[in-house]
Specification:
The structure is a homodimer of 326-residue chains.
Chain A: E1 2-6, H1 10-21, E2 26-32, E3 48-50, E4 63-66, H2 73-82, E5 86-88, H3 97-111, E6 114-116, H4 125-136, E7 140-146, E8 149-150, H5 152-159, E9 164-173, H6 175-182, H7 191-194, E10 195-203, H8 209-217, E11 227-232, H9 235-241, E12 247-257, E13 263-273, H10 276-296, E14 301-303, H11 318-324
Parallel strand pairs in A: 1-2, 1-4, 2-3, 4-5, 5-6, 6-14, 10-11
Antiparallel strand pairs in A: 7-12, 8-9, 9-10, 12-13
Chain lengths: 326, 326
């Protein structure tokens, strides 16, 4: 399976690692909007090319993995590249998925390719956990907790506060809330009860710490509805202790069965990830396998993780899966 | 969706509950090998019929849910009923799945029906957790823990010991082993390190407790390789405190990514169930929906959970799934 990468940031590098771990996949080209001569990749003998050269690779790449951002890159790139290739993206703006799906579906159907969007862990594996659990326990409640991990959006919001030089914000699930959910009590949890916001902030020279702390803690949408802890540290400490890309989270469904709803059940799916981008791209490459196989069977159009039977993700044959993993 | 039940024990009763929870399903008939007049079901105006009458219901039942046992019932019933109906079973003799699959596949293909076998939680949801996690983290280790819950096979084995009147055996996962796995250390765990066997035993009048305890603890295959705790209790206590059908377990994959395998990841799926049969049948009914839809699309033959895209299990439309669960 010949894989192309579009965009060589954290996700692009992750795809490169994942391809190494899957013997049936091979990286054949990396496309970038930067000057290709400035992009150094880790795999020997693979060309790095300008994005405009992608059209010359039609027929030479089985699946193009799109590693751009959801805000501006993917809404344009996924439909455009679905005209030329089978594609996978990790589009994660939940509210805009229906619109993105429609644009990609039209392009992929017209060209006869398979496009799988919103692949990763949320959306992605967490969506699968929610769908399976809802199908099995129609009478129940869903709970999703994120973290502990860095939220890019919240870190950016802190950096926009006057007097802040740099910052990282961790979203931390609150144990008491997790325990209440796991107990089967079906609690109604406020925003504040579910997650804590832990901030590591580097001040500008001469900035007032109390003012910055207050500005962060009262910021609407981002922090005002949460318990927020602000720690002031040096730039050096931020770089050495808070450069990691760990993340994770929990999807729990708590439901009831029985003629009098007398039995409670907890279905829990959780992830603890040392590297958010490397794990995300491990999921992308598994779905690239599915896209390739589905297209070879004559399928086309836009799909999500809900539309893909798990066997399509697996390197093993159906016989091996039944014998060893069932 | 018109559902038939074959066999009215714990599973049959569970299907009846699950049908009530899914507004798009309707129970139309229960078939039994017993005298139908002795079988009282909970749903009004649904006939209970002898199993031989099933052939008269061809065309009137969309999916027949087979609620027999894996040892002797299902190997015969599933191929036989797949000749007449779309069928779902919970065949759980892992080692014999390939053979069962082949027999059911031949029958279902010949008749144009869809049969989904080995549906439930293990095999079933645990198999899915293993397959997704293996596809995503090819370099890793799988760990499955069961319990806390009653093992029927081990309870039966204790009852065969001389001097034992009655018994229940709980399989208990050991916390230290779970913690070691979750830490990402990829431990090699012995049988003894993973599960504890907790036995509640009622002695026959005049039996020697020490002898019985020794006979249980040294029993090969069942107990000798485990730490086993034997508690002697009265029949009354067994009936009042140990009649529950709770169960559960954990599937964990611990894997590595990165150019130097420097990042560890933990994928964990767990279940905590008040009623093993009611949860199992909730899964069966979700897959009955899939069987019905797949057959309506012209599919036939034997399938497992690996072959079914999650959207087929869900009552919601694909648009609703993308908008609300992705």
């Amino acid at each position: 399976m010949k894989i192309g990468i579009l965009g060589y940031g954290n996700l692009g590098r992750g795809v490169e690692c994942a391809v190494k771990d899957n013997p049936d996949t091979e990286l054949v080209a990396v496309f970038t909007r930067r000057d290709p001569s400035t992009v150094k990749i880790q795999t020997p003998n693979v060309p790095v090319l300008n994005v405009d050269a992608a059209k010359d690779w039609v027929g030479k790449i089985d699946v193009m993995i799109l590693c751009g951002g959801s805000a501006t890159d993917l809404p344009k790139q996924t439909p455009e590249f679905a005209k030329m290739f089978n594609v996978i993206d990790s589009f994660d703006t939940h509210a805009k998925i229906p619109e993105h799906f429609a644009a990609v579906d039209a392009a992929a159907k017209a060209s006869g390719h398979v496009a799988i969007i919103s692949v990763g862990w949320d959306p992605g594996l967490f969506s699968l956990a929610r769908a399976y659990a809802n199908a099995i326990l129609p009478d129940g409640n869903d709970y999703t907790f994120w973290g502990k991990g860095v939220s890019q959006g919240h870190s950016d919001a802190i950096r926009r506060v006057k007097g802040v030089k740099n910052a990282k914000q961790y979203t931390v699930p609150i144990d008491a809330a997790l325990d209440a959910v796991r107990s089967g009590k079906n609690p109604e949890l406020t925003t504040r009860q579910k997650h804590l916001r832990e901030c590591y902030v580097v001040l500008e020279e001469g900035a007032d710490a109390a003012e910055v702390e207050n500005a962060i803690k009262t910021m609407p949408n981002y922090f005002a509805d949460y318990d927020t802890v602000v720690n002031f540290i040096s730039e050096e400490e931020l770089q050495t202790k808070h450069a990691g890309l760990a993340h994770g989270g929990f999807v729990i469904r708590s439901g009831k069965t029985g003629m009098s709803k007398e039995h409670g059940h907890i279905i829990e799916f959780s992830l603890k990830l040392d590297s958010n981008p490397e794990f995300t791209t491990a999921v992308l490459v598994a779905y690239a396998r599915a896209a390739c196989r589905l297209n070879a069977e004559g399928n086309n159009g836009c799909k999500t993780v809900f539309d893909i039977a798990p066997a399509y993700l697996c390197a093993q044959s159906n016989e091996e899966l039944r014998a060893h993993l069932l």
